[in-house]
Backbone:
């Protein structure tokens, strides 16, 4: 694998780790299977892209995209908590609705950003190649978000949210509003997913209504891989595991795509197969680790 391909894998790993952290909040912290992620990811991309085309500052568009994702996540939570719709079904309904909403936002299935300023434009004046600049910026953004998330999950609200996902009946007995915790947590999660989508759109130079397909699978793969490598005894270790899992997932895909034996070579169409294999390995790894007595 070339240096260019490796840096590209790091770039993808860092930016999608932000999305994976959002998935971690719903699936692991809240125990809320949220499938609306496949819709909020392109929502963030669509909002950021269309605002950039209209002349809005790229950094402001990222903030607005994050807010849009939080609103969408909040609606998913309200469908579950107020209308008593099963959480899994609520996420599916929002995901389906967002497909049409994203097209409405952009006015078309795809919006190109070629020739427009992005968050990378101010830094390009330093003369750094974009394939080097992008992973550096994504790494900085990811570190900031990870630090904020670890801090937040140790606050009173964060502890209440973690308790809600662990034992909802006990939390209710303590007088905590579990509905409010679910609303805040799902909104926070989808805000991170939309933020990731906005950054991806500016990085690849376009937003597409179909770019969210398989997002939830990639997010879960990152979370499961991270848990297989680092046991989540603490919040810090869990967050670190998600980041490492996301990076390793993207590197594994890059290596697989560059792998060739004779006429046999992996193609992007084999991505789902590779993901299934990686997740399977990650799921059986804890059992193997326990047998050999490996502690990480």
Residues:
């Amino acid at each position: 694998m070339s240096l260019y391909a490796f840096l590209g894998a790091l770039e993808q790993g860092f930016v999608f780790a932000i999305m994976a952290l959002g998935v971690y909040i719903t699936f692991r912290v809240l125990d809320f299977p949220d499938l609306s992620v496949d819709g909020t990811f392109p929502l963030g991309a669509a909002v950021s892209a269309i605002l950039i085309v209209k002349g809005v500052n790229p950094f402001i568009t990222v903030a607005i995209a994050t807010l849009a994702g939080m609103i969408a996540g909040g609606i998913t939570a309200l469908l579950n908590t107020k209308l008593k719709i099963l959480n899994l079904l609520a996420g599916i309904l929002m995901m389906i609705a967002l497909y049409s909403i994203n097209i409405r936002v952009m006015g078309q299935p795809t919006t190109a950003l070629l020739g427009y300023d992005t968050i990378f434009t101010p830094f390009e004046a330093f003369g750094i190649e974009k394939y080097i600049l992008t992973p550096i910026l994504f790494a900085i953004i990811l570190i900031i978000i990870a630090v904020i998330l670890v801090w937040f999950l140790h606050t009173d609200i964060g502890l209440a949210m973690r308790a809600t996902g662990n034992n909802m009946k006990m939390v209710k007995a303590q007088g905590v509003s579990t509905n409010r915790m679910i609303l805040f947590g799902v909104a926070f999660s989808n805000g991170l997913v939309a933020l990731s989508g906005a950054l991806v759109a500016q990085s690849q130079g376009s937003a597409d209504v179909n770019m969210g397909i398989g997002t939830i699978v990639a997010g879960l793969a990152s979370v499961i891989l991270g848990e297989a490598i680092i046991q989540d005894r603490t919040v810090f270790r869990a967050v670190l595991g998600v980041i490492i899992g996301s990076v390793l997932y993207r590197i594994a895909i890059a290596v697989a795509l560059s792998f060739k034996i004779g006429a046999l070579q992996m193609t992007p169409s084999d991505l789902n197969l590779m993901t299934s294999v990686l997740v399977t390995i990650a799921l059986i790894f804890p059992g193997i680790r326990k047998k050999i007595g490996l502690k990480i």
About this structure: The chain has one domain: 3-211.
